[in-house]
Design brief:
single chain, 292 residues, alpha+beta, OB fold (Dihydrolipoamide Acetyltransferase, E2P), four-stranded antiparallel β-sheet, 8 strands, elongated
Length: 292
């Protein structure tokens, strides 16, 4: 439990990040979704003054910027904890004592929270991908090209369902700073079915340059063999490990030789635990620690 969760646990309060689509801007009218959100928590919505952007801009200037929601929550938790020992400017009492008085009057939160989301649809393209939130989400091996999927858009994630409302996968939204798993083995298997599609895939540019060159060899028969090998390697090794060996041995090294060197240096499928290659929802790349 982090500091912010500890504070919320003590206070009985919570913070609701609200997607913009649950409000109507005209005359502050509430959508049905927002009214449903208010009902279980029994609160009244109080809006900022309309046509007073300078007030909201002044507040944003005072708050500043944070790299992530986690950083912002941690900062507020620390500030709130420090502020408990301050004397109230008018009542001349400690903030912690005033807080205890207020907490006794608070309503109890429901045991199960209410999450607002927008429901939409997308069609899987011929490369086994969908486009949402200005990012490409691979669904190779999870949904057939041309099929329609349902998308629940929450404030922090996208939940993708099939036509029977069964979960296909869940990915973070780009601005959260969290990373999305890239199933390279499935992607390579999809490329293997249509080797000419490799150069048109959104995922090609996510590979290191050495591997981009490796899988775009002009001879299609050779390309198929390399894609089949890469699909196998990605089940066992990280992209970084594969790239290192190919850079060491050269692009034209036989697949059997690369497989042997990978096995000697990093172990086989049964003898090694490897990390997961990921692509972030933002602009940077990183690798999560091994899953044991």
């Amino acid at each position: 439990m982090n500091k912010w969760e500890e504070f919320l646990s003590e206070s009985g309060l919570t913070i609701f990040p609200l997607p913009s689509f649950i409000l109507r801007s005209r005359a502050n009218a509430l959508t049905e979704g927002f009214q449903r959100f208010c009902a279980p928590y029994r609160f009244e919505a109080v809006f900022c003054n309309p046509y007073s952007s300078h007030e909201k801009g002044h507040l944003q200037t005072q708050l500043g910027c944070a790299d992530s929601h986690q950083q912002l929550a941690s900062y507020f938790a620390e500030q709130a904890k420090r502020d408990r020992d301050r004397q109230h400017y008018a009542l001349n009492r400690c903030i912690a004592d005033l807080w205890e008085d207020d907490r006794r009057k608070l309503l109890t939160l429901p045991e199960q929270g209410f999450e607002a989301f927008r429901l939409g649809t997308a069609v899987v393209n011929k490369y086994g991908e969908i486009r949402m939130d200005e990012m490409t989400v691979p669904l190779l091996g999870m949904s057939t090209p041309g099929s329609e999927v349902l998308i629940q858009t929450f404030w922090d994630r996208l939940v993708i369902l099939n036509g029977q409302h069964q979960l296909i996968r869940e990915v973070p939204r780009p601005y959260t700073g969290r990373s999305m798993d890239i199933p390279w083995s499935l992607i390579c298997t999809g490329w293997l079915k249509k080797p000419r599609s490799v150069t048109h895939s959104q995922f090609l540019r996510m590979l290191p340059e050495i591997l981009q060159e490796y899988v775009t060899v002009k001879d299609l028969t050779e390309r198929k063999g390399r894609l089949q090998a890469l699909a196998h390697w990605c089940d066992i090794y990280t992209i970084e490990q594969i790239q290192e060996i190919i850079a060491l041995l050269g692009q034209n090294t036989p697949v059997t030789r690369i497989t042997a060197v990978l096995g000697v240096k990093y172990g086989s499928r049964d003898s090694c635990h490897v990390g997961r290659d990921v692509v972030p929802s933002g602009n940077s790349r990183r690798k999560f620690p091994p899953t044991l």
